[in-house]
Design brief:
With 353 residues, the chain is of the alpha/beta class. The protein has three domains: 87 residues, SH3 type barrels (Roll), CATH 2.30.30; 162 residues, 3-Layer(aba) Sandwich (Rossmann fold); 67 residues, Probable gtpase engc, domain 3 (Ribonucleotide Reductase Protein R1, domain 1, Orthogonal Bundle). The chain has eleven helices and 13 strands. The chain binds guanosine-5'-triphosphate, magnesium ion and zinc ion (ZN). Magnesium ion binds next to helix 7.
């Protein structure tokens, strides 16, 4: 099927396909491959099968993804029979966390690829979760996309101000938006993040209202939603697979299943970005190797004494740095063991940047 389409490639309006989020860099990469097969974008994954969109309005084509590291949002090229994914094109960004499912501990799990904005969604109906947001921000900055905090269920609370302030405290220089997927308040502003055909990933715990927000942004009941539990407001894991959803006026959303714990996957400068305020202070300490305990001239301790830095923020930054270091050591040990057995490591090109 793909091949038949591919033969008529020259008749295809590529400007229309730009709507999939295609770019010049992807075009160049694809031209170096088998161009008789059209590239597509993965809209969903189901146990070894990818659903791939070839055009904006076409039904996704199902193909096998044998052995490839594929995430929703990836641009892929099928083999000449159109039966399986042959190439995963280089990702411009990827939201990766440490896998938490059985048998995959210690491995990377890519939740969404080629995203421009990561919406970190929290519900106003539960107490603010600063520590969770900090972790989400580290991963979001690491992804290469821009984070935005979205506080949902605005219609259920009297005044969101204190919750906004509490989360803004741990998200300096990040937009914090308030919205309701039920009444549509604040949704117009969220839509602006999809300008220029951007791809937005929606992330957050189960029941916070990701799918409800997706439906509100799309304008109809695209995604299934379900009531949270009465007592603790926990969701029921209604969304079970990530899905790429098109916004009618341009742009894409990735609805994701709620995750309970956000485990770090080390890479890049996520921690420095997420804790820029603390790092700025650390730069001003008198000693370059300051541990911020009781050294003289410690700008961090000084800020805590003055009440301008919450000590819990220093504490969580140090915890995350330690967690990242442990993860790196674990990865190094793993690679060493693989090298000893003569097992080749996967090629970097299919990994996240
Ligand atoms: N009143 C109100 N209810 C909301 C809002 N957003 C979501 N809900 C309700 O909260 C419940 C959970 O919403 P979902 O959209 O299914 O949550 P989710 O984040 O997609 O959950 P998972 O798919 O399990 O990860 C549903 O009963 C929604 O109707 C909102 O802004 N206001
Ligand atoms: Mg959902
Ligand atoms: Zn110091």
């Amino acid at each position: 099927m793909l091949k038949a389409v591919g033969r008529y490639r020259d008749a295809i309006d590529w400007s229309a396909d730009a709507n999939l989020g295609w770019s010049d860099a992807l075009e160049t990469e694809w031209r170096g491959l088998d161009t008789s097969v059209l590239p597509g974008r993965v809209s969903r994954l189901d146990r070894g099968w990818s659903s791939v969109l070839i055009g904006v309005d076409s039904e996704p084509i199902r193909m096998r993804n044998i052995g490839a590291d594929i995430a929703v949002g990836d641009f892929v090229v099928a083999d000449s029979d159109g039966e399986r994914v042959q190439n995963v094109l280089t990702r411009r960004s990827a939201f990766v966390r440490r896998a938490s499912f059985e048998g995959s501990r210690g491995e990377a799990h890519t939740i969404a690829a080629n995203i421009d904005v990561v919406m970190l969604i929290h519900a106003l109906t539960s107490p603010p979760k600063q520590r969770r947001l900090e972790r989400e921000l580290v991963l979001a900055w690491d992804s290469g996309a821009v984070p935005v905090v979205v506080l949902t269920k605005d219609d259920l609370v009297d005044d969101p101000a204190s919750m906004v302030a509490s989360l803004q405290d741990v998200a300096p220089d990040v937009d914090v938006c308030v919205a309701s997927g039920k009444t549509g308040t604040g949704v117009e502003r969220l839509r602006e993040y999809a300008a220029n055909n951007a791809t937005i990933a929606m992330l957050g715990a189960s029941g916070v209202g990701k799918s409800t927000l997706v439906n509100s942004l799309v304008g109809h009941g695209r995604q299934a939603t379900a009531e949270v539990r009465d007592g603790d407001q926990r969701g029921r894991h209604t969304t079970t697979a990530s899905e790429l959803v098109r916004l009618p006026a341009g742009g894409w959303l990735v609805d994701t299943p709620g995750v309970r714990a956000v485990s770090l996957w080390s890479s890049g400068h996520g921690i420095e970005r997420a804790f820029a305020d603390v790092f700025e202070l650390m730069d001003q300490c008198r000693f370059r190797d300051c541990k911020h305990d009781d050294e003289p001239g410690c700008a961090v301790r000084e800020a805590i004494a003055q009440g301008t830095l919450d000590p819990r923020r220093l504490d969580s930054m140090q915890r995350l740095v330690a967690e990242e270091a442990a993860l790196e050591a674990e990865q190094r040990a793993k690679e060493k063991a693989l090298d000893k057995r003569g097992v080749r490591r996967p090629k970097k090109s299919t990994q996240s940047p």
